[in-house]
Design a protein that fits this description.
By secondary structure, this protein is α/β, with parallel strands linked by helices. The protein has one domain: Alpha/Beta hydrolase fold, catalytic domain (Rossmann fold), CATH 3.40.50.1820. The protein has 9 helices and 8 strands. Strands 1-2-4-3-5-6-7-8 form an 8-stranded mixed sheet, sandwiched between helices.
């Protein structure tokens, strides 16, 4: 599939642009469209029979009940864990919507995963999302024996807005000196609340638009996006101190609204002495994995290799 065809197909699936483009601020319309799209994708991407799933509830320190799902590959003896944080602009998405994606990582690597159903904005603005994911990591630490888990081999993987949450959580854990993770994998992460424009070429192919981005950040930050006093835990691109963070994988496409902020974040991490693996996907828009393309297969393979390397695992036999 040619890139222009891929981007048009994804835009149609997301239903966030073109003739049905939604105005800034309409988070309800975006959530409704996303639920339809995620449902359609889920129907075409089944979970392999080799993957066992168990639903759990994590109780946070403030009494919040956080839905989560544990994934295991049957026969795997891995003692590592990947904490998965789904995308959706912080205003949409769910465990169920990302079910097949998480299962694919587990099937590919043999490493168990914990998918977190964090609270969504605007009903639950920042820091609810960060707190829920941090509580899920704390739960994994406290249940290490039950999970047969080596606490030194926990990774966090966030896609899109999940990448922002993951990066913010990792910084907070570093600063608090608790529950460190072995590595972080950020897939086209949504890092900067100040992003409000796109280049002329990319703008023609965006599957996540400027209007979508402004809407989501304002929902998360109570209409304070772009103002001076935004925490780096909420918008990691604002961080001034990145030293001491774990090995990081960052990936973004050249037709993604987040290209510049993700490239800059990767460079800032490297300047702070952090080990970084950066992949720029030529001609790829946001959410390109939905294409079932060779590029998507390559991306999943490289993400899996990063996890295997930094969690001390070997790939399961085919």
């Amino acid at each position: 599939m040619r890139i222009t065809e891929l981007s048009k197909a994804l835009r149609s699936a997301f239903d966030l642009r073109g003739g049905s483009a939604l105005p800034v601020g309409d988070w309800q319309g975006r959530r409704a469209n996303a639920e339809k799209m995620f449902g359609s994708v889920a129907e075409g991407m089944k979970v392999p029979e080799s993957i066992a799933m168990t639903d759990i509830t994590v109780t946070g320190r403030h009494g919040q009940r956080i839905p989560a799902r544990v994934y295991r590959k049957k026969g795997s003896t891995s003692r590592a864990l990947v904490v998965f944080v789904h995308g959706g602009g912080m205003i949409m998405g769910s465990i169920d919507a990302s079910n097949s994606t998480v299962a694919r990582y587990v099937d590919l690597t043999g490493i168990p995963a914990l998918s977190v159903g964090y609270r969504l904005a605007p009903e639950h603005p920042y820091p609810a999302q960060r707190d829920d994911v941090a509580e899920a990591i704390a739960w994994a630490y406290s249940h290490a024996g039950e999970l047969n888990l080596d606490r030194n081999r926990i990774a966090i993987l966030g896609q899109s807005s999940g990448g922002a949450i993951a990066a913010g959580v990792v910084m907070r854990l570093r600063d608090m000196g608790e529950h460190p993770v072995a590595c972080q994998l950020l897939v086209y992460p949504m890092l900067d609340d100040r992003t409000d424009k796109a280049g002329p070429i990319a703008a023609r192919f965006l599957t996540w638009s400027v209007a979508d981005n402004i809407t989501s950040w304002n929902c998360l930050l109570n209409d304070k996006a772009g103002t001076p006093d935004i925490s780096a835990y909420a918008a990691p691109a604002r961080a001034r101190d990145l030293a001491g963070l774990p090995p990081t994988y960052i990936e973004v496409g050249t037709l993604d609204l987040f290209r510049e902020e993700d490239e800059l974040y990767a460079k800032s991490l490297e300047a702070a002495g952090v080990s970084v693996e950066f992949h720029l996907r030529r001609g790829a828009p946001h959410g390109f994995e939905a294409s079932m393309s060779d590029l998507a297969d390559k991306a999943f393979t490289q993400r899996g290799e990063f996890l295997l390397k930094h969690l001390g695992e070997t790939a399961p036999e085919a």
